[in-house]
Amino acid sequence: MSPAILFLLALGLGLAGWLAARARAWTFRRESADGRLPSLPTYHAWYVALWIVLPMAAFIALWSAIAPGLVTQQVLAAPAAAELPEFGFQRQTMLNEARAVATGASNAVFNPQAAALVEPYREALSHYNVIGIVVALLIAFLGGTFAFLRLKPDFAARTRVERIVMAILLGASLVAILTTIGIFASLVFETVRFFGMVSPLDFLFGTHWGPDPMANAANPDASRYGAIPLFWGTLFIGAIIAMVVAIPLGLMSAIYLTQYANPALRKWIKPALEILAGVPTVVYGYFAALTIAPAIRDLALSLGAANPSSESALAAGLVMGVMIIPFVSSMADDSIAAVPQAMRDGSLAMGATKSETIRRVLVPAALPGIVAGIMLAVSRAIGETMIVVMAASTAANLSANPLEAMTTVTVQIVAMLTGEGSFDHPATLSAFALGFVLFMVTLGLNFVALRVVKRYREAYE
Amino acid sequence: MTLVHDNLEQTEAKMSAKDVSVFYGDKKAIDGVSIDIPTEYVTAFIGPSGCGKSTFLRTLNRMNDTIPSARVEGAIELDGQDIYRSGMDVVQLRARVGMVFQKPNPFPKSIYENISYGPKIHGLAEGKDELDAIVEKSLRRAGLWEEVKDRLQDSGTALSGGQQQRLCIARAIAVDPEVILMDEPCSALDPIATAKIEELIAELNGRYAIVIVTHSMQQAARVSQRTAFFHLGKMVEYGRTSDIFTNPLEQRTQDYITGRYG
Fold it and tell me: What are the ABC transmembrane type-1 domain coordinates in residue numbering (chain A) (predicted)?
């Protein structure tokens, strides 16, 4: 049975329970002495409906996770399965083909051996489908009956419903956390595999980066996996060049907007800045690769640089800096605006000028918030992928010259994962180790930034 | 329209307002106030909330300039010179007319930096020694020196409310002003801290022309020698504090000080 029909079925049952429970609650209400119940009839109705829908949904979710395994087991137990190749890729392909035909996703099998499996598959699928639906209905019925029998005139349906709603909300917020943990776990798993092949010391402190996806996977050359040039490139582009652009411009625009701009102008400039934050990074990438990078190369040529690269770190860094101006400026804007008016008045009443007040009172008072904004911007810049993929090079250079080609961690992750190496080759796995390092660094930056913001908020409340 | 008592001693006016009106947009907040502020006496502005006493106080050092819709008519003179004339340097004015606010507002810097801020921006001290001397003198005058001399590098915001307010007074004194405006300086403080501030005002009297806006009539009676009663944007009555409280000439003043409204 398709998920859509199951979904509608659950809704229908829920609605039925809802109506029945409400009718019952109305009866209580008519029979009660003063026509009042502790809970409104709709709360009784929701209580029953939730007891029908939620257990059923939970079972369906669970079932759709374990049913495919059960189906495959039954198919493998069939006599036709004995002729399958013993292990590996081919066996899996045949099973997949047979399943596709059995579910109607494709018309015919490519491997003749798979044809014999179609019928067992079809049987197993319908077998477990029926079991699933029957159990789901049974659970819905039990849940509904249980809830319905609890309804009484003085039943505290309202508090129960509130509690269920709270549980649902809690579940929703757990999804994000669990996803993060899951991502982290998968990253750690692959990283550990990589470090089994290449020592972490070689990886973290080596200065030569040039993994060869075609080399023998069993015996990788650890000296080609030194990630220092990547870390340097990432820092140089994301944390140095981009910040040299973004910090002064972001800070100054925040000061202008909060202290000088008249309200009409502010109404225009602030959304315009926020639009900058909404431009897809791939568009920035075009801009960097097609406009800025050639311009910088021409400039370098005219200044006498010999053979400048057209994929300079400077181009990527400049555009990335422009991209994160809104992050810096909006955090700075918020924290400057949060400095109490009394502080400004105090300074002005001392005979300080507007710019003295800003420089010596407002910005120092807002500094924690500004610093936190900068840290968030850095963590975004070093995790940024699209601009550097398009505008930076893939050549790992350890150099302090911004006109040279450089590469970043994110560029190499893309290059390694989309390369020709197989998935268990150290060159491919190195992408996970790089991702892991990046994840830890940005996590640390965000953590520190949030702590700083929190402490700063406490100072004024 | 203002009833001025005729038994006042002759004094030289440090500041003098002449028929001053203040508008917020179209709304008239102050209507034709004229008053002389001497150095010899502490002047108190009293009146119910919203009567315009704080607004008027803020015109005396042009703090109303920070409110875009505010407009001032009439003349306010400091040593005979109109402070609203074109070409008047507001920065200089505020160095001469200091202000202490309702809520203590020390900067989130060290105690030392709070005091040295003004002297630094006005270039009053040459070198660290002179600056140290100004800081110590100001804190002594504000009666705070003994309490903080061992922790000048601690944050000013870590002091108690009363200490913070005395720090703000010391900060105002540090630029050596001629007039100090106080806008309900004790309204956020407990009685003991209030008593200390009032003592301090008595000590500073004579050295600076002091104007204090207050909600508390007892406070006005304790600290001031001249009192102006404001009501609905007008200055109703002005005279010796003792006369205003014991022998008011206007019915509205009488009603206010006897607690009929406000």
Answer: 232-449
Q: Which domains does chain B have, with CATH numbers?
A: 3-257 (3.40.50.300)
Q: Does B103 touch chain A (CB under 8 A)?
A: yes
Which chain B residues are closer than 8 Å to A353 by Cβ? 91, 121
Closest-CA distance, A346 to chain B, in angstroms, reads 7
Write out pLDDT tens, residues A268-325: 988 888 888 888 989 998 988 899 988 988 888 888 777 777 788 888 999 999 999 9
CB contact B248 to A (< 8 Å):
no
CB contact under 8 A, A350 and B95: yes
What confidence score (pLDDT) does residue A182 get? 92
Q: Determine whether the interchain pair B107/A352 forms a contact, defined as Cβ–Cβ distance below 8 Å.
A: no
Residues 6 or more apart whose Cβ sits within 8 Å of residue A392: A233, A237, A311, A313, A315, A316, A405, A406, A407, A408, A411
Q: Quote the longest CA-to-CA distance of chain A.
A: 98
The pTM assigned to this predicted structure is 0.73
Over residues B164-174, the mean pLDDT reads: 93
Chain A residues within an 8 Å CB radius of B61: 349
Residue A149 is encoded by which pair of tokens? 């029998």
Phi and psi at B47, nearest 5°, equal 150, 165
> For chain B, first and last CA: distance in Å?
21
| Residues B175-218 pLDDT 10s | 999 999 999 999 888 898 899 899 999 999 989 999 999 988 89
From chain A, the residues in CB contact with B179 under 8 A are: none
Segments of chain A scoring below 70 in pLDDT: 1-3, 82-89, 109, 456-461
Q: How confident is the model at residue B238 (pLDDT cuts 50, 70, 90)?
A: very high
Domains of chain A: 3-155 (no CATH), 222-460 (1.10.3720.10)
Q: Searching chain B, which residue's CA lies closest to the CA of residue A359?
A: B121
Q: How close A262 comes to chain B (CA, Å)?
A: 10
Q: Best of B83, B89, B121 to disrupt the A interface by mutation (most A CBs within 10 Å)?
A: B121
Write out pLDDT tens, residues B17-42: 999 999 998 899 999 999 999 998 99
DSSP assignment string, A125-164: HHHHHHHHHHHHHHHHHHHHHHHHHH--TT--HHHHHHHH
